[in-house]
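Design job #97: recover the sequence.
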């Protein structure tokens, strides 16, 4: 029933890895990829947070029912 989650997650990871491989400064450096990810999580957190709140958490997972 929830097998589509795995497909979506795998596709997201593949897209991110392909993006990093296309960028010269991210291609061969794990440190640069870490800095890139930190920048997006800290400075572009509006992409991840709940827009109804000022909470800066990246995610707020709810327990599975």
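Job complete. Output follows.
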């Amino acid at each position: 029933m929830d097998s589509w989650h795995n497909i979506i997650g795998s596709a997201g990871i593949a897209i991110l890895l392909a993006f990093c491989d296309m960028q010269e400064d991210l291609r061969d450096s794990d440190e640069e990829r870490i800095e890139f990810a930190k920048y997006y999580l800290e400075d572009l957190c509006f992409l991840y947070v709940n827009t109804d709140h000022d909470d800066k958490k990246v995610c707020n997972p709810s327990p599975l029912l």
